[in-house]
Specification:
Shape: globular
Largest sheet: 2 strands, antiparallel
Number of helices: 9
Number of strands: 2
Strand content: under 5%
Helix content: 55-70%
Order of helices and strands: HHHHHHHHEEH
Structural class: mainly alpha
Radius of gyration: 27 Å
Distance between the termini: 72 Å
Oligomer: single chain
Length: 252
């Protein structure tokens, strides 16, 4: 082996030899195993699931993921706009986040939004003249709008129904909010909040990706809700046809 390496490197100029050696060493150390990128983790089973259909469970999981996506966005927005969480009077960014999470979970109004809810609150949070913690107001209003579109619920059971058009409208509202966030300016001509960035230092489009996931879940759930009733009728027909014609016949 040593002889083969010596023969191979004999034709390489001395100036290039260190680079060749480095490449040879690295090629021997490279693993073919895929890099760890996480894994799918299912939720633990609970007694409440006995009162949920498959559609209920999908809606519940989608809602949980959308809220968690908003909380991730809140943390990212606070990191890019630290002056905002200081307006809330909290001692830290983490404390400001927990206050908003608790208000959303308990369906409490957010005081700086002046009693407004749903799209009215979202409009105020994105108004250039709004002087409060804009990150908290924006996330709270967006979450409130999405929950309202789901009939005011975050968990869904057999007797619960969801309006597909309301879900579709919620997805469009998020799209509009993201556009306004990027386009509107305050009195000083600055963006309402710093979010995505494209410049000489690099590209940061993580905000757009996270918002895109929320929009996609809302659209998918809206489509699934409209399909649910049609598929139920088709399944009923399948049951009738299968019961009559798709049975094995005795052969002895």
């Amino acid at each position: 082996m040593y002889g083969l390496l010596r023969h191979s490197f004999s034709a390489v100029p001395n100036t290039a030899l260190p680079g060749v050696l480095l490449c040879a060493l690295l090629s021997g150390c490279v693993s073919t195993a895929p890099a760890p990128r996480g894994e799918v983790r299912g939720a633990s089973t609970s007694a409440a699931e006995l009162a949920q259909s498959d559609a209920n469970r999908i809606a519940t999981l989608a809602m949980q993921e959308n809220l968690e996506g908003l909380y991730r966005l809140m943390d990212k927005l606070y990191r890019r706009n630290p002056a905002e969480w200081r307006k809330s009077g909290t001692a830290s960014r983490e404390q400001a986040i927990e206050q908003v999470r608790a208000a959303i979970a308990q369906r409490q109004p957010w005081a700086p939004l002046q009693g407004r809810r749903d799209i009215a609150a979202l409009g105020l949070a994105l108004a250039p003249e709004f002087a409060g913690d804009r990150v908290a107001a924006f996330i709270h209003a967006t979450a409130d709008m999405i929950i309202t579109a789901h009939g005011g619920k975050t968990e869904f059971f057999l007797l619960d129904g969801i309006d597909a058009q309301h879900l579709y409208n919620a997805a469009r509202n998020v799209e509009t909010a993201v556009w306004l966030l990027a386009q509107r300016r305050n009195a000083q001509g600055q963006p309402l909040l710093l979010a995505d960035e494209m410049g000489p230092q690099g590209r940061n489009l993580s905000f757009e990706r996270e918002f895109g996931k929320i929009i996609a879940r809302l659209d998918l759930l809206a489509n699934f809700t409209t399909e649910k009733y049609r598929r139920a009728a088709i399944s009923y027909v399948h049951g009738i046809v299968g019961g009559s014609f798709l049975q094995f016949l005795p052969v002895r």
